[in-house]
Amino acid sequence: MTDLTKLTAVEIAGLVAGGQTSAVEVTQAHLDRIAAVDGRVNAFLHVDADGALAAARAVDERRAAGEELGPLAGVPVAVKDVLTTKGVPTTVGSKILQGWRPPYDATIVQRLRAAGTVMLGKTNMDEFAMGSSTEYSAYGPTRNPWDTDRIPGGSGGGSAAALAAYEAPLAIGSDTGGSIRQPGAVTGTVGAKPTYGGTSRYGLVAFSSSLDTPGPCARTVLDAALLHAAIGGHDPRDSTSIPQPVPDVVAAARLGATGDLTGVKLGVVTEFSGEGAEPGVAAAFRDSVDALAKLGAEIVEVSCPHFKYALPAYYLIAPSECSSNLARFDGVRFGLREGDDGNRSLEEVMSLTRDAGFGPEVKRRIMLGTYALSSGYYDAYYGQAQKVRTLITRDFTAAFERVDALISPTTPFVAFPIGARTSDPYQMYLADLYTIPTNLYGGPGISVPCGLSDGLPVGLQVMAPTMADDRMYRVAAALESAVGTFTPPAL
Ligand code: GLN
């Protein structure tokens, strides 16, 4: 019998629609797989078996009634614990929200339900999406299915690991500085950060509101495109949502899969090519550039001189926005409340709650951001960082006058051992060196597996102009058609 957990979303949806299997069977197979392996992976913070089986039954009933099912009906999906889910625990990987069951679904979650996907549960993440390894989760690290002594990337390591461990064929992530693409790269899966404003932030617990972008994670480019199409598009409940339809990313992925990139001009970012990357990553990237050229793409080098300032600018802008966003966790409105014995002042209870509820990295960000926004330092830090953001945007604009899309490795290094970078925040921050410029600009970026280095996956990043998400899917699918997909050793 086919192992239903090894199939793509497209294959699962086809079998369900054709009646060769049922959504309940598919869901049960994934729940069994989670029960068998998640003790070693820790991808899930919460598994909603009852909710999943009920959703699956509803799909089977709709099919039995002769209803036309959508392209992802009956396909299980794992949702990063940064999105609110009605009645289902939402912790953002933090102790401060332990026990919170939101009264509403995020728009993305609503759209997942409307598409007939089956939500298996909520995935582990670095606390408040701050981190690159999922080691900053208050609920223990997630482990990389390729090597369980290594990190699965972060902050969305749970979503990426769930895919690589065959616990789910689809997952949702959120990308503020790389949290979809970087875990994708180090787990050998596909992760796409849509254009900022192309996917709704309604119900996404805010980290850095001008950067946060929810998006799709999958094992193939076409699956990611189908998920992107299902969750994307305008949402009147998000003030920065773009009132335009998502470009046809599914058609673009299918076009790319034909393996023809004739007429497509790709720019290798000079500042990110090789230099600074591990030799194995640089080598896999160079081979992929050759593969893209063989598919007909014209390859040129493009210098983006301000990209080297992206990391410092991000670590002023993101903490500044976080210090303001996280002020709402005060022990009164949500989750944890510490020290409220009837004798303490409101300020004391707030302070005790925040001290007990937030982990060290979140506290570091709040302090950095509060400092950067303080009067007297505002212009020197936050103001300067915003100017750098403009310069980076200009680099992108100039580049896209010359090329259709930019490419680089997704990360400078492969999955590192658990514990290797936790003692030095800067070493952790470097994991997002190549992904952050895209967030500052607001354009789309995708990571697609491109090779192995010492048996560990390497990702290639494709960056496109804002609202040209389709372009990156075409290039990523073409590369996938040339290099194939990568399967981790059995768990
Ligand atoms: N690793 C980066 C950070 O720690 C990006 C996180 C993200 O994209 N959510 O801020």
Automatic annotation (TrEMBL):
Membership in a protein family: Belongs to the amidase family. GatA subfamily.
InterPro entries in UniProt: Amidase, Amidase_CS, Amidase_dom, AS_sf, GatA
Protein name: Glutamyl-tRNA(Gln) amidotransferase subunit A
Organism: Micromonospora haikouensis
Coiled-coil region list: none
Top EC group: ligase
Gene name linked to the record: gatA
Record carries keyword ATP-binding: yes
Domain Amidase intervals: 25-471
Record-annotated active site: 80 (charge relay system), 155 (charge relay system), 179 (acyl-ester intermediate)
Lineage per the UniProt record: Bacteria, Bacillati, Actinomycetota, Actinomycetes, Micromonosporales
Function of the protein: Allows the formation of correctly charged Gln-tRNA(Gln) through the transamidation of misacylated Glu-tRNA(Gln) in organisms which lack glutaminyl-tRNA synthetase. The reaction takes place in the presence of glutamine and ATP through an activated gamma-phospho-Glu-tRNA(Gln).
UniProt keyword terms in alphabetical order: ATP-binding, Ligase, Nucleotide-binding, Protein biosynthesis, Transferase
EC number: 6.3.5.7
Cellular component aspect of the GO annotation: glutamyl-tRNA(Gln) amidotransferase complex
